[in-house]
Amino acid sequence: MELFSRAFAADPHSAYRHMREQFGPVVPVWLAPQVPGTLVVGYREALAVLHDPERFPADPSRWERTAQRDSEVYPVLAPRQNALRSAGPAHARFREAITASLAGVDLYSVERAVDRAAEALIHRFCQRGSAELRGEYAFPLTVRVMCELLGIESEVAEQVWLEMARMLDGDGQAGARFGAALYAVARDKRTRPGLDMMSRLVEHPAGLNDAEVVDQTALLLGPGTEPTCNLITNTVLMMLSDERFAAGLLGGGLSIRDAIEEVLAKDTPLPNFCISYPRQPRQLAGVWLPADEPVVISMAACNSDPAAAAHDPDGWGNRAHLSWGAGPHACPAQAVAGVIVARAIEQLLDALPELELAPGHAPSWRPGPFHRAIAELQVRFPATDIGELAMPPLRPREGAAR
Question: Is 400 part of any domain?
Fold first, then answer.
């Protein structure tokens, strides 16, 4: 099975069912041309891998020795000095620093950052009566907010945003420019720390050097930002196209957070990830996995595994899904990402309550083995005079103490 094909991107859920029927919970796949891997589509088998970092370490350094370095997936799979691509003491050190950096974030400050970004971006297209929500709203909003939380000033943040967009478009030189911009910020934080995430990385007792600070920051801005952006667009798409949800929302029975959980359980924006590299052949569900070859957890397939606790084809709000991962590599930014997504959608729908999908523009899905990402999400709405647009006041988060 080729996970990089357009056919797979167009209908991955049918592909997962076919894989399970043909191979069971462990499936041989191609992540890219000449890049083999194993996809775990069984919920129980995935948990076994995720909770066993000794047998399934996330360090790809041995895989890299024979890797296809010109492959489009190499930058995703390659070794990094960060919490995602390390094992053992190195992972513990990086994980402690990045978790502490995130723990210092005030979630109300996240909401205010989203409000500022949302207002500025919506003002750019509200008078036009139409927009492409991924490129004009979800992606720039998530990058702006994360840059603000990291303490990256607006001019550098704009450069970071442009270079990230260029990397997604395949610009081979954009990664070097992206890294150089972050190095400059890291060096500045050494002499002028602030009350921000990047300063906390610099000042953490783990003693990260500049390269390590940059790699943790890039982790928050790359694998952290892209799924958050896609969760916004995937949720908005569902809300605008799923009559079942629309009826529930109008009836007061469902909330935006219900919609987010529905997407995480049934159409997660990071469907295949949590990659490990066993150092010797390992047996999983009766299948021998090659040494030093990527083992990829399919959160999307596991969430729909009929044998899984997460499989609930008719219900709402099932939180047994694996979309945030599990075990020592579970996403440490769940709370921050959840606030960004919920608040971004709230502000969009409050400002443009008559938002609808643009006719004649069926959403298409970007090919790629790791993400579930809309290429474009064209919408329309009654044009709104910029002077008439009043963003709603800050509201308490759901579940917050009153």
Answer: no
Q: Is the pLDDT of residue 309 over 70?
A: no
Q: Give the C-alpha separation, 92 to 105, whole Å.
A: 21
CA distance 91 to 93: 5
CB atoms within 10 A of CB 301: 27
What are the phi and psi torsion angles at 59 (to 5°)? -85, 115
The candidate with the shortest Cα–Cα distance to 110, out of 156, 144, 152, is 144
Structural domain of residue 10, as residue ranges?
Answer: 6-380
How many whole angstroms separate alpha carbon 128 and alpha carbon 352? 12
User: Into how many domains does the chain fold?
Assistant: 1
Neighbours of 201 (CB within 10 A): 27
Closest CA to 223 of 158, 269, 262, 276: 269
Q: Is residue 398 part of a domain?
A: no
> H or E segment at 225?
helix 225-241
Nearest-5° Cα angle at 309, 305 to 310: 65
Tell me the H-state helices in 251-364.
256-266, 299-303, 334-351
**Largest pairwise CA distance in the chain:** 64
- H/E stretch holding 237 reads helix 225-241
Cα four-point dihedral sign 391, 264, 106, 83: negative
CA distance linking residue 226 with residue 377, whole number of Å: 15
If you write DSSP's letter for every residue of 242-259 in order, what string do you get? -HHHHHHHHTTS--HHHH
pLDDT of residue 246: 62
**Domain-embedded: residue 385:** no
- Let me know if residue 344 belongs to a domain: yes
Helix residue spans in 78-224 (DSSP H): 88-103, 107-125, 133, 139-150, 154-168, 174-191, 197-203, 210-221
163-172, 194-203, 307-316: least confidently modelled range:
307-316
Q: How many CA atoms lie within 13 A of 24 on its CB side?
A: 7
Q: Residue 338 and residue 135: Cα distance in Å, rounded?
A: 20
Do residues 10 and 266 touch, judged by C-beta distance below 8 A?
no
Identify the CA nearest to 107 among candidates 149, 150, 152.
Answer: 149
Token pair for 193: 């720390």
CATH for 145? 1.10.630.10
The model carries a pTM of: 0.89
- pLDDT tens-digit map of 182-237: 899 999 999 999 999 999 999 999 999 999 999 999 889 877 788 999 999 999 99
